[in-house]
User: Fold this.
Amino acid sequence: MKNMRVQTANQANDESQASQLLVVQAFSLVASCLEFPSYQAAATGLATNLATRLQCERVSIGLSKNQRLHISAMSYSARWDKRSNLVQSINAAMDESCDQETTIVYPVPVKDAKKKFVGAHKKLSDSQKSVVLCTVPLSNEGQVTGAITLERNVKNRFQPSSVQLIELVATIAGPLLEMKRLEERWIVRKLWESILNAIGRIIGLGFIKTKLILLIVSSMVVFMLMTNGTHRVTADSILEGSVQRTISAASDGYVMSSAVRAGDTVSENQVMAKLDDKDLQLEIEKLKSQRSQLEHEFQDALVQHKRLEISVLTVKLSQIDTELDLINERLARLKIVSPFDGIVLEGDLTQALGMPIKRGDVMFKIAPLNDYRVILSVDETDISYMQVNQHGMLTLTGLPDENFDIAIEKITPVSKAKDGRSVFHVEAKLSQNDPQLRPNMKGISKIEIGEKKLFWIFTHKLVDWFYLHTWAFLP
Assistant:
């Protein structure tokens, strides 16, 4: 019993080693066809190697074309007459094997005598003085792409191990040869065959997923061709005050106090900030002291009836009064007041008390709180559709759940660069105000242009781009 187990184990080991050897031999034979860049050279090299390694008189490799096999390579031969009886007989033997999708060995072993049709192989064997034959189909992705026919002397029949080796070679070489053949096709032929394959998927049996996708896409296209929709132009937008007032310093000075900063709301004539007035107050005290002295001199002149001196003192008093009026005016300008009810957009002097200010320096920017305009940045490809009095909707980033009605008021005829593209500024007016609105809020506007087919709405930009670049390319 123990000896039988040992013998079985040895037999299994021998079979495993024999299988590994066959695989190594098959890969070594096929490796030769990878050395050649073209299909013809690779097939001829493989046929010659098989003929040499397996001691065959001739090895032929056929290629499937128009549902028939034609010899494309023959061992030890670069040319052959396709119309000769020998070539026709080999083609018939290959067709016979491929039609049955099985390996045919002739003479047929007894166990396969009733399972296979070998008429073409018998005819080929008889024409070549009773040679033995072996034909193995080549396949790629489940489809027969060719066949290999091997011819031996009648005294050197094909053994099962040789047949296994040939079948392994066919399994490996089939996809490789087909890949080389497909790569050598002309580009026009590749395109034509791709179109035929696509048509075959649509018309032929199978490929349910492809047909379903095509049906859905076709239905969507037909629906868009038949259905009207509203053509809208989408543009980035920003909310601005209808008027924006800049308040600057009327004279040189120092910041003494500040009551507001950016974001605060102010009312008309509200004091927003004050500049230091110490120098002007000292100047006023000085002028008042001079005026008091001149008044005493004026009274003395009146008592003494000095007419000339009275005239001079009258002029000096008038000059001092004028200077006082000017200084008071300058004092009034040191108070920065709001020109109207609004919101402070820029300016924060609360952290700059005592800082020197020069005449003309911007201190605050104010916009009205209840009067806004919308600035749309319309792409140059859409500006031709825009017209005054068109209506649309504005949605702000800060208020995404609310839509505001807008109407186009002005179209600026000058473009500006923005994010690598040209845009036109279009001004629109809000139809209603909202207490939640604030200047510089950003959002997206959609302006209604008119009724168009849905297909045109989704494809007109692509079509315009194609026309433009085609025109630029043409001479």
Notes: The mean pLDDT is 81. The two ends are 92 Å apart (CA to CA). The chain has ten helices and 19 strands. The chain has four domains: 13-184, 189-226, 245-366, 371-473.
